[in-house]
Amino acid sequence: MLINGKPYRTIWFEKNIVKIIDQTKLPHQFIVKDLRTVKESINAIKTMEVRGAPLIGATAAYGLVLSILEKNDQSFLRESSDGLIASRPTAINLKWAVDRMMKKLSGVNSNEILTVALEEAKIITEEDVNFCKNIGLNGLKIIEDLARRKKDTVNILTHCNAGWLATIDWGTATSPIYHAHQKGIKVHIWVDETRPRNQGANLTSYELNEEGISNTIIADNTGGILMQRGQVDMCIVGSDRTLSTGDVCNKIGTYLKALAARDNNVPFYVAVPSSTIDWKIKDFKEIPIEERDPKELSHIEGLDNDNKLQKLLIYPKKSKALNLAFDVTPAKLVTGLITEKGVCEASEDGLKGLLK
Ligand code: MRU
Question: How far is the CA of 160 from the centre of ligand 1 (A)?
Answer without folding.
Answer: 7
